[in-house]
Write a structure and sequence with these properties.
seven-stranded mixed β-sheet, 11 helices, globular, alpha+beta
């Protein structure tokens, strides 16, 4: 009938697939970058520990001096625990973590770019370029120059959103052979540096995606040189926007994850409100939690010296609620890819 003819000529819209807010044209470059970086990324700690080990060994060839100077510059840029003991030191370490490198470079030359020489990512990029020139001079067709292979020993779970950051094992300098020299395994070193740079870039992409979602959430990892090892402090910093009626309109939440020599893996959540601060510690070891809890009064006193009122301190052995399992996280990544 006429009704059927009308429907064929004027079809009615029954279903429209609307992409989510993150699946916009602005987000596609970030998603493509993430897909590219995921199989390349690796932990920063193993390559830094290996470089420090190599710097402790006298070289055989003078022509390696330029590369060695870049290795020393990278090592000197690494913070120590003492650097993190005050607010200004911590601020500088965060700024030089590699998270803001391209943002700093995009600004006009001036005082804002004076710290670029100590930026971790910039130092790794300079070193990778120098080693790449050496490999190209020795063998221009070396496949590692175009397709660096990440090592299994540096594999690490990708950074995750809305959960406590993962704990990465500390790597000691003594884990490398005593007779190892810079010329030995230079191709493998090039691949490890490439993986470390990919890891830092992945953190940048994740942070950019967070802001694209409207979330003030920074994700970064700080390598720390301590004693005879390199430790990784994984950090997320989030500015939470509360309801208008809540007087804490801009609460801050900082999550930390690190492995300590005698305490083992520890995760920490610090929540800062206008009226004070709350902290919670997670560890699978009851002994570790016992030691931490025994220092609560000392921590409370230190915070009060800084003008901060302690609202709550707690220790928990069970897995944090916000932390997903590895299988669940990998499943989410597979779905996004």
């Amino acid at each position: 009938g006429l009704g059927d003819v009308y429907k064929r000529q004027h079809p009615q819209l029954l279903l429209r697939i609307i992409p989510s807010s993150i699946e916009t044209a602005a987000a596609r470059p970030l998603q493509e970058a993430m897909i590219s970086l995921l199989p390349q990324q690796g932990s920063i700690a193993p390559v830094l520990a290996e470089l420090i080990h190599k710097a402790m060994i006298s070289g055989k060839y003078l022509e390696q001096q330029s590369t060695r100077s870049l290795i020393n510059a990278l090592i000197n840029a690494l913070p120590t625990r003492n650097t993190l003991l005050n607010a200004e030191g911590m601020r500088q370490v965060v700024l030089q973590s590699g998270l803001f490198l391209e943002s700093i470079l995009s600004k006009p030359r001036g005082n804002s770019r004076t710290g670029i020489t100590r930026d971790i990512k910039a130092a790794l990029l300079r070193l990778k370029h120098s080693i790449g020139l050496e490999l190209m001079e020795a063998s221009p067709d070396d496949p590692v120059l175009n397709h660096p292979v990440p090592g299994l020993q540096s594999s690490v779970i990708p950074p995750r959103r809305k959960s406590l950051p993962i704990v990465q094992p500390r790597v000691t300098f003594s884990s490398f052979a005593e007779n190892d020299d810079l010329e030995d395994g230079i191709r493998g070193l090039y691949s490890k540096i490439h993986s470390a740079i990919a890891r830092l870039s992945l953190l940048q992409v994740n942070t950019a995606e967070n802001f694209l979602r409207g979330e003030h959430l920074w994700q970064l990892e700080i390598p720390v040189k301590h004693s005879e090892a390199v430790e990784i402090i994984s950090i997320t910093i989030e500015k939470e926007h509360k309801e208008p009626l809540n007087k804490d309109k801009n609460a801050w939440v900082v999550n930390l994850a690190l492995e300590l020599p005698r305490l083992g893996p520890v995760q920490v959540r610090i929540s800062l409100y206008q009226q004070g601060i709350s902290s919670c510690f997670w560890s699978e070891s009851p002994e570790t939690l016992y030691i931490i809890k025994g220092r609560f009064e000392q921590l409370r006193a230190k915070l009060e010296q800084q003008g901060l009122k302690t609202l709550a301190l707690c220790c928990q052995q069970e897995k944090p609620v916000a932390t997903q399992s590895v299988d669940a996280e990998i499943s989410n990544i597979d779905l996004r890819v």
